[in-house]
Design goal:
245 residues; alpha/beta; Spore Coat Polysaccharide Biosynthesis Protein SpsA, Chain A; nine-stranded mixed sheet; two-stranded antiparallel sheet; 30% helix; 22% strand
Length: 245
Amino acid sequence: MILGIIPARYGSSRFPGKPLVDIRGKSMIQRVYEQASKAKKLTKVVVATDDNRIAEHVKSFGGEVIMTEPNHPSGTDRCYEALRKAEGNYKFVINIQGDEPFIDPHQIDELANACNDSTELLTQMISVDSYEVLFDTGEVKIALNDHKEALFFSRMVIPFVKGIDQKEWHKHHHYYRHVGMYAYRADILEKITRLMPSDLEKAESLEQLRWLEAGYKIKCVETKYDSHCVDTPEDIEKVLKLMRL
């Protein structure tokens, strides 16, 4: 059984009230919820929030809500509280980003299909085919082992390709960038929420490095679906154009 959780906060320094913003007749959180509910591999989908405005809105369109504490440092911690409060016995939790209103349900199913007893943590990645994306520090790159498990995540380009012009690196090594949806085995989710922030995590501002430093394995599942998130009000029109709506 797999529980899909959509963490949703009202407060945001760049975009306050983002989950409730209207996108052509529906709120962002409703669009995410409806898309996630189309995934065939999820047993249940819930919104995890600390805000009554979000909770009442989700209930108004028939969604399920779990109220969580307001002081969680990350969506991972909010997911764990929601898991503890959810009815049912779930083997895995998938953390679905609440700011991707047009996420494809097939992308969620791709990650869910890779969940098995031997996996601890999973995330997604997409192939890099351009110099511009490869050297964009806003895009997180991944170094992998032979089992498609993450060795490291970095905002810098990894690995360095010696003797080749940087603009040609993507033609000489198969690079991947991170797509930020996570699946956690339930027992592992409990354990990673007890970890303190690590040195690598602080340096890169990437939570998943805390898990790697602690010795956990993160399986990386390749996807062809590109995620389009909304971080600012201006991003809404950009996403709509990309989705051709």
